[in-house]
């Protein structure tokens, strides 16, 4: 139940282990998720501010700070200035400004957990930034949809008022309870133990130059990839994961004709469609899948192997198993997990170690996230957290019929040219598969 604590004297809400995990990562790494929307017109600044206020009013966690205490929790901030959650920048070169905005971090211990930036150039660009401590990509999309809806429905100085409800159970508990103990144990085994065996070559040390790069795959190739997925009975995610593996294997030293692990993610909300689960929560988890590094396989043959491997993981609910294993890590408390992460971060700075590459498909950005009425959205994509050395990741998102591949990385550890080659290699693999 909500209580009162701290200097703010605001309501408090539980911070489950999934939030605690991303909080610990955010104390070391850049754990921001961004949604970038470009509109072909001018947006009204005042209406945007009120729309953001309205969206924050419906979601207490986003207007809270994280209390790093013996019993971690969220504490609502009773009063927020406009500057705490909104800013506008006039700029002749919006892309340079965009890259600067993407590097701005939210300290979850200060909050609020979401911020909206309007970049005014030749076209208006909106950047919704959310700290991963509070939510995964699903929650970012839901928050964007609330902002856009409020903007469309606002008139004059008024924005629609939606009553605030207390956060639902944002933990794994509702998902766990939907499965029997036997099914949960099978999922745990299907997840398997972590076995980092390879990784993008990187220079150990501090991450002093985080940056982003992205590559857009246009409608022509995207439609062919979608058609291929349907004719082959695969998901687009299967094709993307295979393309990612094929591309990174060109950059990572390895032995041919054996399997290697990569990380990929799944949204646990899909496992329990009938169970009411909050959209703004951390319910996406990563698990490992082993794929063949075999130069004799054609790109399409590799995609078929990837599809079979993914179907096996789905059948045994490996994503559920990953959540169970994360929950087990916290049985000894947040401080124990903090210590192990600090040791790992120290090892990465001084000596380096292998860390399996990670691919995440954050999915389709639906029209209700980008519908601001008369100002039509011309592009949108999600930007993932920065992966610190020795990690390396690529995230995909789709808007309309344009697919965007994005990587957040440390350029003082991994050369930008390597990242560009990986993204280009993914596109080439998809092009070859699709004919």
Structure explained in plain terms:
The chain is α+β, with helices and mostly antiparallel strands and 435 residues long. It has two domains: 4-153, 2-Layer Sandwich (Chloramphenicol Acetyltransferase), CATH 3.30.559; 179-363 and 386-433, Nonribosomal peptide synthetase, condensation domain (Chloramphenicol Acetyltransferase, 2-Layer Sandwich), CATH 3.30.559.30. 36% of the residues lie in helices and 23% in strands. The chain has twelve helices and 15 strands. The strands form three sheets. Strands 9-15-14-12-10-11 form a six-stranded mixed sheet. Strands 6-7-8-3-13 form a five-stranded mixed sheet, with helices on both faces. The protein has a four-stranded antiparallel sheet with strand order 1-2-5-4, with no helix packed on it. The relative contact order is 0.18.
Describe the largest sheet.
Answer: 6 strands, mixed
- DSSP helical segment count: 12
> What is the count of β-strands?
15
CATH superfamily annotation of the largest domain = Nonribosomal peptide synthetase, condensation domain
- By CATH reckoning, the class of the largest domain would read Alpha Beta
Mean pLDDT equals: 91
The best one-word shape is globular
Architecture blueprint of SSEs:
Elements: E1 4-5, E2 10-14, H1 17-26, E3 32-39, H2 45-58, E4 64-67, E5 73-76, E6 86-90, H3 94-102, E7 114-120, E8 124-131, H4 137-153, H5 173-176, H6 181-191, E9 210-217, H7 219-232, H8 236-248, E10 258-267, E11 284-293, H9 299-315, H10 318-329, H11 334-350, E12 358-364, E13 377-383, E14 393-399, E15 402-410, H12 416-433
Parallel strand pairs: 6-7, 10-12, 12-14
Antiparallel strand pairs: 1-2, 2-5, 3-8, 3-13, 4-5, 7-8, 9-15, 10-11, 14-15
């Amino acid at each position: 139940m909500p209580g009162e604590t701290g200097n703010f004297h605001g309501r408090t809400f539980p911070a489950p282990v999934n939030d605690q995990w991303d909080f610990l990562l955010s104390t070391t790494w850049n754990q921001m998720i961004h949604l970038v929307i470009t509109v072909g017109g001018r947006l009204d600044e005042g209406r945007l501010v009120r729309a953001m206020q309205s969206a924050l009013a419906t979601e207490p966690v986003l207007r809270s700070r994280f209390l790093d205490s013996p019993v971690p929790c969220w504490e609502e901030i009773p009063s927020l200035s406009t500057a705490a959650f909104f800013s506008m920048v006039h700029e002749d070169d919006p892309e340079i400004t965009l890259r600067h905005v993407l590097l701005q971090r939210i300290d979850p211990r200060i909050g609020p957990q979401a911020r909206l930036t309007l970049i005014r150039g030749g076209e208006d660009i909106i950047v919704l930034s959310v700290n991963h401590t509070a939510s995964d990509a699903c929650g970012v999309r839901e928050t964007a949809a609330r902002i856009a809806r409020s903007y469309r429905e606002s008139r004059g100085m008024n924005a629609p008022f939606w009553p605030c409800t207390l956060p639902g159970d944002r933990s794994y508990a509702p998902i766990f309870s939907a499965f029997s103990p036997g099914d949960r144990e099978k999922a745990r085994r299907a997840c398997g133990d972590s076995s980092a065996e390879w990784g993008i070559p990187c220079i150990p040390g501090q991450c002093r130059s985080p940056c982003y790069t992205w590559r857009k795959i246009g409608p022509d190739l995207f439609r062919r990839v979608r058609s291929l997925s349907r004719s082959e009975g695969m998901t687009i995610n299967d094709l993307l994961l295979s393309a990612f593996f094929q591309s990174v294997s060109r950059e990572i030293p390895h032995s041919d004709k054996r399997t290697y692990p990569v990380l990929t993610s799944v949204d646990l909300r899909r496992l329990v469609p009938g169970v009411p689960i909050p959209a703004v929560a951390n319910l996406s988890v990563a698990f490992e899948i082993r794929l063949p590094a075999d130069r004799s396989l054609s790109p399409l043959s590799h995609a078929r192997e990837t599809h079979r491997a993914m179907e096996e993981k789905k059948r045994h609910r490996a994503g559920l198993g990953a959540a169970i294993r994360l929950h087990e890590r916290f049985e000894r408390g947040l401080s124990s997990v903090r210590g192990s992460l600090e040791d790992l971060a120290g090892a990465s700075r001084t000596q380096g170690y292998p860390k399996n590459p990670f691919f995440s498909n954050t999915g389709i950005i639906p029209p209700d996230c980008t519908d601001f009425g008369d100002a039509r959205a011309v592009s949108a994509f999600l930007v993932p957290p920065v992966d610190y050395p020795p990690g390396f990741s690529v995230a995909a998102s789709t808007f309309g019929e344009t697919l965007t591949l994005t990587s957040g990385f440390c350029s003082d550890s991994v050369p930008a040219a390597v990242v560009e080659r990986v993204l280009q290699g993914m596109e080439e693999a998809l092009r070859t598969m699709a004919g």
